[in-house]
Write a structure and sequence with these properties.
Blueprint: H1 2-16, H2 23-38, H3 41-45, H4 63-69, H5 77-91, E1 101-106, H6 113-124, E2 134-138, H7 139-142, H8 149-166, E3 171-175, H9 189-192, E4 197-198, E5 201-202, E6 207-212, H10 216-228, H11 242-251, H12 260-263, E7 269-272, H13 278-291, H14 298-308, H15 326-339
Parallel strand pairs: 1-6, 1-7, 2-3, 3-6
Antiparallel strand pairs: 4-5
Protein backbone atom coordinates (compact mmCIF):
# COMPACT_ATOMS: atom_id res chain seq x y z
CA UNK A 1 0.00 0.00 0.00
CA UNK A 2 2.82 2.42 0.92
CA UNK A 3 4.58 1.47 -2.30
CA UNK A 4 1.51 2.36 -4.43
CA UNK A 5 0.86 5.60 -2.53
CA UNK A 6 4.41 6.84 -3.10
CA UNK A 7 4.23 6.02 -6.78
CA UNK A 8 0.88 7.85 -7.13
CA UNK A 9 2.29 10.90 -5.35
CA UNK A 10 5.24 11.05 -7.73
CA UNK A 11 2.97 10.84 -10.77
CA UNK A 12 0.82 13.63 -9.33
CA UNK A 13 3.84 15.88 -8.84
CA UNK A 14 4.93 15.26 -12.43
CA UNK A 15 1.50 16.14 -13.84
CA UNK A 16 1.38 19.41 -11.87
CA UNK A 17 4.78 20.39 -13.23
CA UNK A 18 4.05 19.81 -16.95
CA UNK A 19 3.42 23.51 -17.63
CA UNK A 20 6.98 24.40 -16.59
CA UNK A 21 8.69 22.35 -19.32
CA UNK A 22 8.61 22.08 -23.09
CA UNK A 23 7.47 18.77 -24.64
CA UNK A 24 11.03 17.57 -25.35
CA UNK A 25 12.10 18.11 -21.75
CA UNK A 26 8.96 16.39 -20.51
CA UNK A 27 9.60 13.36 -22.68
CA UNK A 28 13.21 13.06 -21.58
CA UNK A 29 12.26 13.43 -17.94
CA UNK A 30 9.51 10.83 -18.16
CA UNK A 31 11.84 8.36 -19.88
CA UNK A 32 14.46 8.88 -17.20
CA UNK A 33 11.90 8.32 -14.46
CA UNK A 34 10.66 5.13 -16.08
CA UNK A 35 14.23 3.91 -16.44
CA UNK A 36 14.94 4.52 -12.77
CA UNK A 37 11.72 2.81 -11.79
CA UNK A 38 12.50 -0.25 -13.88
CA UNK A 39 15.91 -0.53 -12.28
CA UNK A 40 14.21 -0.90 -8.89
CA UNK A 41 16.24 2.04 -7.57
CA UNK A 42 13.14 3.89 -6.46
CA UNK A 43 11.75 0.76 -4.83
CA UNK A 44 15.00 0.26 -2.90
CA UNK A 45 14.92 3.82 -1.65
CA UNK A 46 11.25 3.81 -0.63
CA UNK A 47 9.35 0.58 -0.13
CA UNK A 48 12.40 -1.51 0.76
CA UNK A 49 13.34 0.83 3.57
CA UNK A 50 10.29 -0.37 5.47
CA UNK A 51 9.70 -3.88 4.11
CA UNK A 52 11.94 -6.90 3.57
CA UNK A 53 13.36 -7.10 0.06
CA UNK A 54 15.90 -9.30 -1.66
CA UNK A 55 18.71 -6.75 -1.32
CA UNK A 56 21.76 -5.99 0.81
CA UNK A 57 19.73 -4.06 3.37
CA UNK A 58 17.58 -7.07 4.20
CA UNK A 59 20.36 -9.60 3.55
CA UNK A 60 23.51 -8.07 5.13
CA UNK A 61 25.24 -11.49 5.18
CA UNK A 62 27.22 -10.61 8.29
CA UNK A 63 29.74 -13.45 8.50
CA UNK A 64 31.72 -11.58 11.16
CA UNK A 65 28.62 -11.60 13.39
CA UNK A 66 28.31 -15.35 12.84
CA UNK A 67 31.94 -15.83 13.80
CA UNK A 68 31.28 -13.95 17.05
CA UNK A 69 28.20 -16.05 17.80
CA UNK A 70 30.11 -19.27 17.23
CA UNK A 71 32.20 -18.45 20.30
CA UNK A 72 29.27 -19.92 22.26
CA UNK A 73 29.57 -23.23 20.41
CA UNK A 74 31.58 -25.61 22.54
CA UNK A 75 33.76 -28.49 21.41
CA UNK A 76 33.33 -27.86 17.68
CA UNK A 77 36.61 -26.47 16.36
CA UNK A 78 36.14 -28.12 12.96
CA UNK A 79 32.74 -26.45 12.51
CA UNK A 80 34.23 -23.04 13.29
CA UNK A 81 37.16 -23.54 10.93
CA UNK A 82 35.18 -24.79 7.93
CA UNK A 83 31.86 -23.02 8.18
CA UNK A 84 33.11 -19.44 8.27
CA UNK A 85 35.38 -19.99 5.26
CA UNK A 86 32.64 -21.76 3.28
CA UNK A 87 30.05 -19.03 3.89
CA UNK A 88 32.44 -16.10 3.49
CA UNK A 89 33.68 -17.33 0.11
CA UNK A 90 30.13 -17.95 -1.14
CA UNK A 91 28.76 -14.62 0.10
CA UNK A 92 31.75 -12.51 -0.92
CA UNK A 93 30.62 -9.26 -2.57
CA UNK A 94 31.54 -8.94 -6.22
CA UNK A 95 32.46 -12.61 -6.60
CA UNK A 96 30.48 -14.53 -9.19
CA UNK A 97 29.53 -18.01 -8.06
CA UNK A 98 28.57 -20.79 -10.46
CA UNK A 99 26.87 -22.99 -7.91
CA UNK A 100 24.74 -22.79 -4.79
CA UNK A 101 26.37 -23.66 -1.46
CA UNK A 102 25.32 -27.05 -0.06
CA UNK A 103 26.42 -28.14 3.43
CA UNK A 104 25.54 -31.27 5.38
CA UNK A 105 25.80 -31.25 9.20
CA UNK A 106 26.22 -34.60 10.95
CA UNK A 107 26.43 -35.54 14.63
CA UNK A 108 24.67 -36.95 17.65
CA UNK A 109 21.81 -34.97 19.26
CA UNK A 110 22.73 -31.97 21.38
CA UNK A 111 26.01 -31.16 19.63
CA UNK A 112 24.79 -27.86 18.17
CA UNK A 113 23.57 -28.56 14.63
CA UNK A 114 20.26 -26.71 14.97
CA UNK A 115 21.83 -23.91 16.98
CA UNK A 116 24.40 -23.26 14.27
CA UNK A 117 21.79 -23.37 11.49
CA UNK A 118 19.77 -20.76 13.39
CA UNK A 119 22.91 -18.65 13.89
CA UNK A 120 23.50 -18.69 10.15
CA UNK A 121 19.96 -17.49 9.42
CA UNK A 122 20.16 -14.78 12.08
CA UNK A 123 23.52 -13.53 10.76
CA UNK A 124 22.76 -13.50 7.04
CA UNK A 125 19.25 -12.02 7.18
CA UNK A 126 18.17 -8.87 8.99
CA UNK A 127 14.92 -10.60 9.98
CA UNK A 128 16.75 -13.78 10.94
CA UNK A 129 14.62 -16.90 11.17
CA UNK A 130 11.50 -14.76 10.63
CA UNK A 131 12.72 -13.77 7.18
CA UNK A 132 10.52 -14.75 4.26
CA UNK A 133 13.72 -15.85 2.54
CA UNK A 134 14.53 -18.50 5.17
CA UNK A 135 12.77 -21.83 4.64
CA UNK A 136 12.95 -24.64 7.20
CA UNK A 137 11.73 -28.16 6.56
CA UNK A 138 11.15 -30.51 9.50
CA UNK A 139 11.68 -34.23 8.86
CA UNK A 140 9.26 -35.90 11.25
CA UNK A 141 6.72 -33.08 11.15
CA UNK A 142 6.10 -33.00 7.42
CA UNK A 143 7.95 -35.91 5.85
CA UNK A 144 7.35 -39.19 7.66
CA UNK A 145 9.23 -42.23 6.43
CA UNK A 146 5.98 -44.01 5.58
CA UNK A 147 4.92 -41.52 2.93
CA UNK A 148 5.56 -41.24 -0.78
CA UNK A 149 9.09 -39.91 -1.47
CA UNK A 150 8.06 -38.69 -4.92
CA UNK A 151 5.34 -36.46 -3.49
CA UNK A 152 7.76 -35.10 -0.88
CA UNK A 153 10.32 -34.43 -3.59
CA UNK A 154 7.75 -32.64 -5.73
CA UNK A 155 6.72 -30.48 -2.78
CA UNK A 156 10.32 -29.59 -1.94
CA UNK A 157 11.10 -28.84 -5.60
CA UNK A 158 8.03 -26.59 -5.96
CA UNK A 159 8.79 -24.74 -2.71
CA UNK A 160 12.43 -24.15 -3.63
CA UNK A 161 11.70 -22.91 -7.17
CA UNK A 162 8.99 -20.58 -5.89
CA UNK A 163 11.34 -19.21 -3.23
CA UNK A 164 14.20 -18.68 -5.70
CA UNK A 165 11.93 -16.76 -8.05
CA UNK A 166 11.13 -14.43 -5.15
CA UNK A 167 14.75 -14.20 -3.99
CA UNK A 168 17.78 -16.08 -5.40
CA UNK A 169 19.60 -15.43 -2.10
CA UNK A 170 17.34 -17.74 -0.11
CA UNK A 171 18.35 -20.16 2.65
CA UNK A 172 16.91 -23.67 2.91
CA UNK A 173 17.35 -25.70 6.11
CA UNK A 174 16.37 -29.36 6.10
CA UNK A 175 16.18 -30.68 9.65
CA UNK A 176 15.99 -34.35 10.66
CA UNK A 177 17.14 -35.51 7.24
CA UNK A 178 17.68 -38.98 8.71
CA UNK A 179 13.92 -39.13 9.44
CA UNK A 180 12.99 -38.29 5.84
CA UNK A 181 12.30 -41.05 3.31
CA UNK A 182 14.91 -42.19 0.84
CA UNK A 183 14.53 -40.29 -2.43
CA UNK A 184 13.02 -37.14 -0.91
CA UNK A 185 15.79 -34.93 -2.33
CA UNK A 186 16.16 -36.38 -5.83
CA UNK A 187 14.41 -33.42 -7.43
CA UNK A 188 16.90 -31.05 -5.79
CA UNK A 189 19.95 -32.39 -7.61
CA UNK A 190 19.33 -30.51 -10.84
CA UNK A 191 18.76 -27.29 -8.88
CA UNK A 192 21.88 -27.34 -6.72
CA UNK A 193 24.27 -28.88 -9.28
CA UNK A 194 26.49 -26.69 -11.47
CA UNK A 195 24.43 -24.08 -13.30
CA UNK A 196 23.72 -20.42 -12.73
CA UNK A 197 20.50 -19.39 -14.47
CA UNK A 198 17.84 -21.56 -16.08
CA UNK A 199 14.31 -20.64 -17.16
CA UNK A 200 14.79 -17.20 -15.68
CA UNK A 201 15.67 -18.52 -12.20
CA UNK A 202 19.09 -17.91 -10.63
CA UNK A 203 20.12 -21.11 -8.81
CA UNK A 204 23.67 -20.13 -7.91
CA UNK A 205 23.24 -17.82 -4.91
CA UNK A 206 21.16 -19.98 -2.57
CA UNK A 207 22.38 -21.88 0.49
CA UNK A 208 21.18 -25.36 1.46
CA UNK A 209 21.88 -26.91 4.87
CA UNK A 210 21.06 -30.52 5.76
CA UNK A 211 20.93 -31.52 9.43
CA UNK A 212 21.20 -35.18 10.31
CA UNK A 213 21.97 -37.52 13.20
CA UNK A 214 23.29 -39.97 10.60
CA UNK A 215 26.93 -40.94 11.22
CA UNK A 216 26.80 -39.70 14.82
CA UNK A 217 27.94 -43.11 16.06
CA UNK A 218 30.62 -43.30 13.37
CA UNK A 219 31.94 -39.86 14.36
CA UNK A 220 32.11 -40.86 18.03
CA UNK A 221 33.84 -44.16 17.24
CA UNK A 222 36.42 -42.57 14.98
CA UNK A 223 37.13 -39.71 17.38
CA UNK A 224 37.54 -42.19 20.21
CA UNK A 225 40.03 -44.18 18.16
CA UNK A 226 42.00 -41.03 17.36
CA UNK A 227 42.12 -40.10 21.05
CA UNK A 228 43.39 -43.58 21.92
CA UNK A 229 46.20 -43.07 19.40
CA UNK A 230 47.23 -39.95 21.29
CA UNK A 231 45.81 -37.38 18.87
CA UNK A 232 44.35 -34.41 20.73
CA UNK A 233 40.73 -33.57 20.04
CA UNK A 234 41.70 -30.01 19.03
CA UNK A 235 44.16 -31.39 16.46
CA UNK A 236 41.58 -33.38 14.54
CA UNK A 237 40.58 -31.95 11.18
CA UNK A 238 37.83 -32.16 8.59
CA UNK A 239 39.79 -34.67 6.53
CA UNK A 240 39.63 -37.14 9.42
CA UNK A 241 35.84 -37.36 9.12
CA UNK A 242 34.49 -36.12 5.79
CA UNK A 243 34.76 -39.37 3.82
CA UNK A 244 33.19 -41.24 6.75
CA UNK A 245 30.22 -38.84 6.73
CA UNK A 246 29.74 -39.08 2.99
CA UNK A 247 29.73 -42.89 3.03
CA UNK A 248 27.38 -43.05 6.02
CA UNK A 249 24.93 -40.54 4.54
CA UNK A 250 24.85 -42.53 1.30
CA UNK A 251 24.57 -46.01 2.81
CA UNK A 252 22.44 -45.53 5.94
CA UNK A 253 18.68 -44.96 6.08
CA UNK A 254 17.36 -41.45 5.58
CA UNK A 255 16.68 -38.79 3.00
CA UNK A 256 20.22 -38.86 1.59
CA UNK A 257 20.41 -42.64 1.27
CA UNK A 258 21.59 -43.56 -2.26
CA UNK A 259 20.93 -39.93 -3.15
CA UNK A 260 21.95 -38.47 -6.49
CA UNK A 261 22.98 -35.37 -4.52
CA UNK A 262 25.90 -37.43 -3.21
CA UNK A 263 26.47 -39.34 -6.45
CA UNK A 264 26.72 -36.06 -8.36
CA UNK A 265 29.03 -34.59 -5.67
CA UNK A 266 26.57 -31.71 -5.31
CA UNK A 267 27.11 -31.48 -1.52
CA UNK A 268 30.11 -29.21 -1.04
CA UNK A 269 30.91 -29.84 2.62
CA UNK A 270 30.17 -32.70 5.03
CA UNK A 271 30.82 -31.16 8.44
CA UNK A 272 31.09 -33.27 11.63
CA UNK A 273 29.73 -32.10 14.97
CA UNK A 274 31.93 -33.95 17.42
CA UNK A 275 30.40 -35.64 20.49
CA UNK A 276 30.70 -33.49 23.60
CA UNK A 277 32.75 -34.40 26.64
CA UNK A 278 32.11 -33.56 30.29
CA UNK A 279 34.08 -30.29 30.14
CA UNK A 280 31.82 -29.07 27.33
CA UNK A 281 28.71 -30.00 29.30
CA UNK A 282 29.85 -27.79 32.16
CA UNK A 283 30.39 -24.90 29.75
CA UNK A 284 26.85 -25.37 28.41
CA UNK A 285 25.48 -25.38 31.96
CA UNK A 286 27.31 -22.20 32.92
CA UNK A 287 26.06 -20.48 29.77
CA UNK A 288 22.45 -21.53 30.51
CA UNK A 289 22.64 -20.27 34.09
CA UNK A 290 24.18 -17.01 32.91
CA UNK A 291 21.01 -16.35 30.90
CA UNK A 292 19.23 -16.09 34.28
CA UNK A 293 22.11 -14.13 35.85
CA UNK A 294 22.85 -17.12 38.05
CA UNK A 295 26.34 -18.45 38.80
CA UNK A 296 25.93 -21.61 40.88
CA UNK A 297 28.64 -23.48 42.76
CA UNK A 298 30.35 -26.44 41.14
CA UNK A 299 28.45 -28.92 43.33
CA UNK A 300 25.16 -27.75 41.78
CA UNK A 301 26.56 -28.37 38.30
CA UNK A 302 27.86 -31.77 39.42
CA UNK A 303 24.40 -32.80 40.60
CA UNK A 304 22.82 -31.85 37.27
CA UNK A 305 25.46 -33.68 35.24
CA UNK A 306 25.15 -36.82 37.36
CA UNK A 307 21.36 -36.88 37.13
CA UNK A 308 20.90 -35.89 33.49
CA UNK A 309 23.93 -36.79 31.42
CA UNK A 310 24.80 -40.32 30.33
CA UNK A 311 27.99 -41.24 28.51
CA UNK A 312 28.71 -43.66 25.69
CA UNK A 313 29.39 -47.24 26.83
CA UNK A 314 32.47 -47.75 24.64
CA UNK A 315 34.74 -44.84 25.54
CA UNK A 316 32.79 -43.48 28.51
CA UNK A 317 33.67 -39.86 27.73
CA UNK A 318 31.10 -38.73 25.17
CA UNK A 319 27.72 -37.40 26.35
CA UNK A 320 24.96 -39.27 24.50
CA UNK A 321 22.57 -36.32 24.28
CA UNK A 322 25.16 -33.55 24.42
CA UNK A 323 23.75 -30.34 25.87
CA UNK A 324 20.21 -31.03 24.62
CA UNK A 325 18.41 -31.53 27.95
CA UNK A 326 20.20 -28.87 29.95
CA UNK A 327 18.16 -25.77 29.10
CA UNK A 328 14.94 -27.14 30.59
CA UNK A 329 16.69 -28.43 33.71
CA UNK A 330 18.27 -25.03 34.30
CA UNK A 331 14.95 -23.29 33.63
CA UNK A 332 13.32 -25.31 36.42
CA UNK A 333 16.10 -24.45 38.87
CA UNK A 334 15.91 -20.77 37.93
CA UNK A 335 12.13 -20.76 38.40
CA UNK A 336 12.42 -22.39 41.82
CA UNK A 337 15.11 -19.90 42.79
CA UNK A 338 12.86 -16.96 41.88
CA UNK A 339 9.95 -18.43 43.85
CA UNK A 340 11.99 -19.08 46.99
Amino acid sequence: MTYILLYSTLLSLISHSLALFDPITIGAGAAALIGVWKSDFLKDQTYCRYAECCNDRSIPANVYELKTKLANLYGQHIVKQQLIAALASHLEKGRETRKSLVISFHGTPGTGKNMVADMIANSIYAEGLRSQFVHKFMGRAGYSTGGNPASYGAHIHHTVIKALRLCPRSLFIFDEVDKMPKGAFEALTSIVDYRSIANGVDFSQAIYIFLSNTAGVEISTHLGNLLVKGILRENTKLGDFESILERAAYNLDGGLSKSSLIEAHAIDHFIPFLPLEKSHIYKCLNAEFARYFMYPEVKVLDEIVESVVTFDPIHGVFAKSGCKKLDKKVAVIAYQHRRS
